[in-house]
Amino acid sequence: MAKISIFIFGLDRVGKTTIVEFLKEKKYIPQNPTIGVSISQIVFQNLTMEFTDVGGQKKFRADWDNYLKKPHVLVFVIDASDRDDERIQEGRMELHKLLENPKVIGIPILILINKVDLSPELVMTKDIIVKKYGTGKITGRDMAMYEVSAKTGKNLDSVLNAMTTMVLKDEGIEYFVNETVKKESKQLLERYKKFFDAGNEAYKIGQHDQALASLNIAKEIATNLFQLGVFSGGGKDYKKLTSLIAKIEKEFEEIQQADVPSPAVYSQQSAELPAQEQEAVPEKQETTPEKQEPKASPMSLAEQLKTPNILVPSTRVAKAVQKKEKAKKFKLFVFGTDQPGIFAFKDYLVKEKFASQVNPLAINMTSIVFNNVEFLFNNLVKIDEKIDSVMAAWNDPELIIFMVDAVDVNTFSFAKRALMTVLAKPETKDKPLLVLVNNFDATEAQPVAFVDKISELKHTRGKDVGIYQVSVKYDYNLDEPFNFLVTIILKDVSMKNFVSGELKRRIDSMKSMYDALIKEAKSLEKAKKWQETFNRVAKAKLIQEELFKYNQKAQKEIKVCEDWLSKLRMKSIE
């Protein structure tokens, strides 16, 4: 069994040893500070991974050089909650100093941002850490960065996969796959590119069904490639592919439903649309049976390798995609002293940037609601000393949003006065209120100072008041205000019923996906394809963990998957 050497370093108390122990034991085990050096071994996918974990206290850092014996991977750990400027500068200096050591020239590095399980207001975002630690300046080697938790295990499986991906590029490492599988991997990669290109071209000319047929086969191949470590970037290629498929599926569904009358719940909103906003629906073309193209059936791994031809896009004329009518129009009245933040927030909702954050194996309530709501904004006017002038933009909204810049401390008093003046108007009575204290993650920010000034609003205006510290620019800490927004939207009974139906549909879809993965895993296990079986069961477990949020009975299936995975690990080692 091949052995790879991993050198893990960083300042003291950042969680290096706790991370290694979680990787070994698959659970959180509190650790004392490492005195000197600790060497641990983990068996993963037929690789013996040897971790050299050196103490991060100042007196031990001089010894780091003594343990740099041709490591295959470097791992630098950062405490995301440690905002002390002196410690940050110290960590940055130690990182770049070690990377300049001739012993590790060209050695790949993983940057682990630990302790992200802590409260969002305590931890720094990835963008801030990149800037403060200067990781963007690292060149001449492979690098990947992960936000992790040694307490919950978040992203640590991805870290292990990233390590194996990095060492696969070292010809001196005997990877867990044999030469035959390596050869097949190369063939699969070529096949993947052909199917992906064919699907992409079909999509460009509007042939959505053909695009989906090609891209779904590419996705099946990609699943194998990612698990074999062939895909780089910690699965970015795979995520990009799944996002593209989801986008095409959504557009294709809209095309299929173009001639279907909208349900009653939409009728009122449809009537309110100005004539210039309503799009013409293209006439549906009749297709004779002779001209219909056969749908591609799923292909096994062996079939993918043997199939001589790829799906070739036809020259059929592209269909115009009708803009999907939303289930509800929701008016927002947005104002405040942070004008750039207000425009960024509007842009975030209008361009549906929230969709890019959704895990394809997760049921995200915010995404379900927002995807089916059309947000209507008031005219975004800048408020000045004539605070009353802001009411000229009043649009009788369902929600009032006020935004202030946490960095601009000098405007706090004026911002409070502006907010209270507007809330004193009879038009705003009983309207829910969302206050966003933006840019709270900046070094010079003082968000709490403004929150304290307006904290009495939660008591004086009833329960529908949310006050949150966010960073719209970095899409940080937006979960809580979005949950608040979703709660307000779902007070509409028709919308609540619509979302309940959509939620049920997605849960049923995930259950079907789970059944299919388990069926395939059993077949692969009979064929003694341990690694492929492991991949299917691991994905099935992720699905049940998501379903557990909606049905506690999923715990039984999670336990079945965990036991199965343990058995497969032993068979892989044997």
What does this molecule look like?
- This protein has 574 residues and is an alpha/beta fold.
- The chain has four domains: 2-168, 3-Layer(aba) Sandwich (Rossmann fold), CATH 3.40.50; 179-271 and 296-306, no CATH class; 328-491, Rossmann fold, CATH 3.40.50.300; 510-573, no CATH class.
- It has 19 helices and eleven strands.
- The chain has helices at 16-25, 58-61, 85-99, 126-133, 156-168, 179-204, 208-227, 236-256, 264-272, 301-306, 339-350, 365-371, 412-423, 447-454, 457-460, 479-489, 493-526, 530-547, 554-573; strands at residues 2-9, 37-44, 47-54, 73-79, 109-114, 143-147, 328-336, 373-377, 399-405, 433-438, 465-469.
- The strands form two sheets. The chain has a six-stranded mixed β-sheet with strand order 2-3-1-4-5-6, with helices on one face. Strands 8-7-9-10-11 form a five-stranded parallel β-sheet, with helices on both faces.
- α12 crosses α16 (479-489).
- The radius of gyration is 27 Å and the shape is globular.
- The protein starts with a strand and ends with a helix.
- 30% of the residues are buried.
- The model is unreliable at 171-181 and 259-322 (pLDDT under 50).
Short synopsis of the structure:
The protein is of the alpha/beta class and 574 residues long.
Per DSSP E runs of 2 or more residues, the count of β-strands stands at: 11
Count up the helices: 19
What's the gyration radius in Å? 27 Å
SSE sequence, one letter per element: EHEEHEHEHEHHHHHHEHHEEHEHHEHHHH
Instruction: Give the DSSP E fraction (strand runs of 2 or more residues).
Output: 5-15%
Provide the helix percentage: 40-55%
What fold name goes in the CATH topology slot of the largest domain? Answer: Rossmann fold
Total count of domains: 4
Broad CATH class of the largest domain: Alpha Beta
Physical arrangement of strands within the biggest beta sheet: 2-3-1-4-5-6
Biggest beta-sheet profile = 6 strands, mixed
Shape from CA axes?
Answer: globular
CATH superfamily of the largest domain: P-loop containing nucleotide triphosphate hydrolases
End-to-end distance: 11 Å
Mean of all residue-level pLDDT scores: 78
Second CATH tier, the architecture of the largest domain: 3-Layer(aba) Sandwich
Alpha-beta classification:
alpha/beta
Poorly predicted regions: 171-181, 259-322
What is the chains' assembly state? single chain
